[in-house]
Amino acid sequence: MDVNCNKTAQELSLSVKQVSAVTALLNEGCTIPFIARYRKEMTGSLDEVAILAIRDRMARLIELDKRRETIVNSLIKQEKLTPELEKAVNEAETMAALEDIYLPYKPKRKTRATAAKEKGLEPLAKRIFEQKGFDLHAEAVAYIDAEKGVNSEEEALQGARDIIAEWINEDADTRKAMRELFMKEGILTSEVIKGKEEEAQKYKDYFEWKEPVAAIPSHRMLALRRGEREQFLLLNITPPQEIAVDLLKHKYLTTVNEISTQVEIALKDAYKRLLSLSMETEIRLSTKKEADEEAIRVFAKNLRQLLLASPLGQKTILAVDPGFRTGCKVVCMDRQGKLLHNETIFPHEPQKKIVESAVVIKNLCRKYEVEAIAIGNGTASRETESFVREIDLPKNIIIVMVNESGASVYSASDVAREEFPDHDVTVRGAVSIGRRLADPLAELVKIDPKSIGVGQYQHDVDQTALRQSLDDVVMSCVNSVGVELNTASKELLSYVSGLGTQLAKKIVEYRNENGPFKNRAELVKVPRLGDKAFEQAAGFLRIRNGENPLDSSAVHPESYYIVEKMAEDLHCGVEDLIKNPSLRNKIDLKKYVTDETGLPTLNDIFSELDKPGRDPREKYEAFAFAEGINAIEDLEAGMTLPGIVTNITNFGAFVDIGVHQDGLIHVSNMADKFVKNPADVVSVQQKVMVTVIEVDIGRKRISLSMKSDPFGKEGNADKKPKKRGAEQPPAGDLQAQLAMLKAKFNG
Fold first, then answer.
1. What is the chain's alpha carbon radius of gyration, rounded to the nearest angstrom?
2. Are residues 100 and 139 in the same domain?
3. pTM for this structure?
4. Beta bridge partners of 687
5. Residue 335's pLDDT is what?
6. For residues 136 and 259, what is the distance between their CA atoms, to the nearest angstrom?
7. Within this chain, do residues 131 and 152 fall inside the same structural domain, yes or no?
């Protein structure tokens, strides 16, 4: 463990003390959010990113150690373990290096080399491999033995070459050099399988494709592998053969004679039959792993931004799940998200009951004192939005289009059925749309992240690694925001540090049976919620208007005594400290430093007293799509439109501009300057202004730009941006765009 801590500290540029502390806390069952927030003195104030890196690197080193132990035990069992071999095994720093060392001793099925050894040809192979002068013909003839299956001189030489080829293939240094060559000089080639040209049209770009494997981006690697998996493409990854063979010649040929000719034949065979195949397999696995890691990183970043999207907050909401033939499902919810009413209206074709539907909406808004209307962005969304905006509703009611990705998954889930057993999927879907507006995080945790629509080839990557990463993100987001103990669903509670599914369920059951929690201390009365779970969870749970004013803050109960001491020293109550800034300003934090509590924790406590339980998410700002642009057919090159970023990939960002088909801002069109990473320019759910540069209705593709001059200053006069209203600022001018949108909804 100490060795691994040292390695991890060196690799991550951290101190051994920090790595050891984090490792010990994780082994004690502490969660990453808890360690980052409440154990800063122990870790040197490491953030969640650093703690995650320590956890993951230590896990890989432990996995390496387990494999090392297995190999040593195997070598002992085979009676092959020498001090030199044991030293090499113990010093191997990667799994590939470890497997290379073990390869010659790894139990294997019968090979051409083992068959040749059984025929007694290994001494001949050794003499040839040494390339010292001797009579090759006489030596080979001496091994002819019909009983052993060696019937000619050529059979003896072939057997010897097979043994040499296996030696070359199993040499650790050779494999390392060849692996590096494949990574540095390897070329990935792709071609369409003959006869499948029509079926494989979506992979047309890769019918004849070549690219250095070292340069291929993760999204293209995953796309190519998907095409191969679907049996449309043939892939190969190899360096130029002459370079690989020259590498082997340089290493193994020591002279030029008929003996070295046998070695040359053997090394060419070793490369073609053994090394090239195993190296290609390794490079495929390593590039797939790298592509997975990058895709998962992108997915996780997008998910974090989506989960931490601005909440409207506790409002009375009317939500609409739009539809044409089947009508629009309408639900009303109170400020806690409780379903009050549901019905269906038919404002569109074929029924077109516009007046009757408008009356329903107006009456519901009046009856339930609706403060906001949420409209799902699926089928008939723009038509429904236009219909609602034309109703004479009070101006204080905001009308918002809500991304409904995954709502159908939620509505058909066990969670939804348990929550609304007496309602069908359409009602559940509409409720989900409304709740997403009020609090995206609280609602989206009920849905498998892969169904939310912010991933990149998420079904192609390592699913275990993906699940781990997404769980980390959801837990981080939930705990950074904090959870209201008396209203949170069990799904939301399950992501609170230290709880999990079963304890979350127990908390809800206790709450239903005993009423709202009056204070955090009452948590220990929940069955099976012990001291460790309380320690991990309590600081992230909030109780508004509870018995203790600190229960609504992120101050951990273990630190309440510090605040109480501060209040006592100032001759006031804790509540006075929270309400009165002048009292707080008199606090000298250094006075309360102890061996267990340092300034990092004291500074956090002071910040919480200033704004107890503050929500780290940005304040909600309303948004509307351009009027009159409802379908892809309405678009023209040059239009400048408002949009919302829905997904970010390595090659660009997808933007919803209100036409039921997201447009793509390719990375080359994201800014006037060079952009390497789209995530450096935009974030998921960000409001942007974009210019339409190309529309392909047949393929349903929309190309967008955020450049100030997307068509260039010369030549393209007919494609100058067409404004959607004189007040529209230039595409990419984000501050002006947001000011324009804010003015539109405030005025």
1. 33
2. no
3. 0.85
4. 644
5. 93
6. 7
7. yes
